[in-house]
Amino acid sequence: MEACNRKRLIVGVAMLVTGLLELIALLQLSNIVRLGLPIPCFVPTLAAVLPIVTLLLSILPVACSRIFAERRLFYPAIVAGNILFAGRVLGKLYCRFVRSHRHNFYEKKWEHWFQKKSCKIGRIERALQCCGFSTPYDRAFPFADNDSESGMCVKEYQFTEPCGQKWAYETEMVVKSCMFVFFIVLLASFVCLFRWIRAYRKSKALSREFDVGDEESDNDEASTTEFSEIVKMKDDATEAQVPSDDPPSYYVVESRS
Question: Which domain of life is it from (predicted)?
């Protein structure tokens, strides 16, 4: 009964954590689309897929038989692959968006959209309630034909703050949220690998104990057989030495005439 309750607890906790990670990943994907953040959409997509894979890996030893779930080589291979993939994505995000702090990266992206007259700048301005990049009059939407019309964003939306710092901050927050999801996936994968190693060692120890027990039983049977043979030989020798109670038999030799 306790083992069954433990299995239910593991499955319940794994599903709850996976649901929270899925919610975080989907919210970050929505923020990328809504704010036009310079983050590839496959990053939050992976953050939504990897928790499901990790959930299956965590409940597989519980839901399936031990031979199928813990003794097959494909299980640790999948867990190790999940660890390597999550660790690589985590390192890429950290190097590109957290450690560098490159303000030019965001400005180049904004300049690219400004040159293309993309409406994404207007969507970012309305979402963050700001105008322009460095200042409210710097490459703002609606796009101006001359310098005298550079304040059209402030006049239309009444926003007086620039978007550069806000946009970079939102990008870093989304990246850190996705990194948190990948970190939890990495940690859960290490737990799954540790559980498999412990179960594998336990199964090996049990198999060695069974082998030793079989050898001891074989030795006991062999010694018992040898002892019975020795006893039988002694009995035969004793019977040969004991004199018989029957009278000796005589025979008559007839004389020749």
Answer: Eukaryota
Query: What is the number of helices (H) and of strands (E) in the chain?
Result: 8, 0
Are 124 and 35 in contact by the 8 Å Cβ rule? The answer is yes
169-208 pLDDT, tens digit each = 888 889 889 999 999 999 988 888 888 787 777 777 776 7
> How many Å apart are CA 168 and CA 170, to the nearest integer?
6
Q: Which of 159, 101, 98, 112 is nearest to 132 (CA)?
A: 159
Annotated domain spans of the chain:
2-201
Q: How many CA atoms within 13 Å lie on the side-chain side of 204? A: 7
Integer Cα distance of 136 and 153 in angstroms? 8
Q: What is d(CA 146, CA 66) in angstroms, rounded to the nearest whole number?
A: 73
Please tell me the distance from the alpha carbon of residue 193 to that of residue 80, in angstroms, as a whole number: 8
Query: pLDDT for 125-170, tens place per residue?
Result: 888 888 888 888 888 888 776 655 667 888 888 888 898 888 888 8
* Cβ contacts of 47 within 8 Å, gap of 6 or more: 21, 24, 25, 28, 178, 181, 182
